[in-house]
Design goal:
- This protein has about 325 residues and is an alpha/beta fold.
- The protein has helices at about 35, 45-65, 85-100, 110-115, 160-170, 180-185, 215-220, 235-260, 275-285, 295-300, 300-315, and strands at about 1-5, 10-20, 25-30, 75-80, 105-110, 130-135, 140-145, 150-155, 265-270, 290, 335.
- The chain has 2 domains: about 1-115 and about 300-315, Nucleotidyltransferase, domain 5 (2-Layer Sandwich), CATH 3.30.420.40; about 125-290, ATPase, nucleotide binding domain (Nucleotidyltransferase, domain 5, 2-Layer Sandwich).
- It is built from 11 helices and 11 strands.
- The strands form 2 sheets. The protein has a 6-stranded mixed β-sheet with strand order 10-9-6-7-8-11, sandwiched between helices. A 5-stranded mixed β-sheet has the order 3-2-1-4-5, sandwiched between helices.
- The chain is globular.
- The structure holds 5'-O-[(R)-(carboxyoxy)(hydroxy)phosphoryl]adenosine and zinc ion (ZN).
- Zinc ion binds near residues 115 and 135.
């Protein structure tokens, strides 16, 4: 079954053709990064306008790279939550139009579930596993029992991990996207130059939860307070100290989840999963195996949408024309010990 996957939840306009939830025939990703760079962040109105301009050329490219015509598509999967409302609406409306004109079913997809499905497009990974989803919009540690069976164990109570990278980089003018710039600067920095604080969220309901607002405030507004004066206050040192603290916040919760669940396999996804310090720390954890999708499947892409969409459509599910979009993460069980 050939599925067209449509992803337009943020600043990537992407379409892919995937067969039977596994074989990627094409995965075209048109990123808007260069257009948002002058603003040092994604401008929602610009993002949705560009999706309306790019969506048809991206479709044509995805079809021609897959070597098929529109008539050979058997179903459509489209991200409909969470994300920027205007951007989501472009993709969803396009999917509805195509579905009606071609007379084929379509399904709305939860973007977070799709990220956790992405590595399964490249290798067979047995369930259950721990999902670690870290991006500009999300910071989620979850237990994954199936493509549609996900239990969120911990999540950020304020800023997302990638958002913290982006905001620190924006404040210090390190470059855009912030995570990439900080990762690069940190390679030549000393992570001991600042002792930035982490959150104290280990009790009760927050055992696996994460917070980045305190760290962000410390790095942006209270730099001197955490400065280890024997080292220089350079961009590299700020970046390295911030990165180490931000990633360690994540790893501390992840280690708790590993201990409590007994699961030994971690599947990482989202833009921050590309972070070199995170990767080196995870590979040093001998008790767990970590699986990362390749870069085009780590960032937002249509292939993960088509891949997971196949499983819903194959079991006969299809969305009604009244399907809508949502900015929020919905449809997960949240559990605490
Ligand atoms: O998954 P993604 O492409 O888009 C969504 O947010 O859904 O993730 C983008 C985020 C941005 O916040 C970016 O700064 C961050 O991922 N990022 C990184 C790195 N590469 C991208 N953060 C830390 N280290 C990186 N190497
Ligand atoms: Zn994403």
């Amino acid at each position: 079954m050939r599925i067209l996957g449509i992803e337009s939840s943020c600043d990537e306009c992407s379409m892919a053709v995937v067969e039977d939830g596994k074989r990627i025939l094409s995965n075209v990703i048109a990123t808007q990064i260069d257009i948002h760079r002058p603003y040092k962040g994604v401008v929602p109105e610009i993002a949705s306008r560009l999706h309306t301009e790019w969506i048809v050329p991206v479709l044509n490219d995805a079809l021609s790279k897959a070597g098929i015509t529109l008539k050979e598509i058997e179903g459509i999967a489209v991200t409909n939550r969470p994300g920027l409302i205007g951007s989501l609406l472009v993709g969803l409306s396009f999917a509805k139009g195509l579905s009606m004109s071609l007379g084929i079913p379509y399904i709305g997809i939860n973007h977070i579930k799709a990220h956790l499905y992405a590595p399964l497009l490249e290798e067979d990974i047995p369930y259950p596993f721990i999902g670690l989803l870290v991006s500009g919009g999300h910071t989620i540690i979850c237990r994954v029992d199936g493509f549609d069976s996900i239990e969120i164990l911990g999540t950020t109570i304020d800023d997302a991990c990638g958002e913290a990278f982006d905001k620190v980089a924006k404040f210090y003018d390190f470059g855009y996207p912030g995570g990439v710039a900080i990762d690069k600067l940190a390679r030549n920095g000393n992570s001991k130059a600042f002792n930035f604080p982490g959150p104290n969220l280990h009790k009760g309901d927050h055992r696996y939860d994460i917070s980045y607002s305190g760290l962000k405030t410390a790095v942006v507004n209270q730099l001197d307070q955490f400065w280890n004066r024997e080292y220089e206050k350079t961009p590299e040192n700020i970046a390295a100290s911030f990165q180490k603290t931000a990633i360690n916040i994540l790893l501390k919760r992840l280690k708790r989840v590993i201990e409590d669940t007994g699961l030994r396999r971690v599947v990482a996804g989202g833009g921050v999963a590309a972070n070199s310090y995170l990767r080196s720390e995870l590979s040093a954890m001998k008790e767990v195996t970590t699986v990362y999708p390749s870069l085009p499947l780590c960032t937002d892409n249509g292939a993960m949408i088509a891949g997971i969409g196949y499983h819903y459509l194959a079991r006969g599910e299809a969305a009604p024309l009244s399907e809508t979009v949502s900015a929020r993460v919905t449809g997960f069980r949240k559990a605490y010990p």
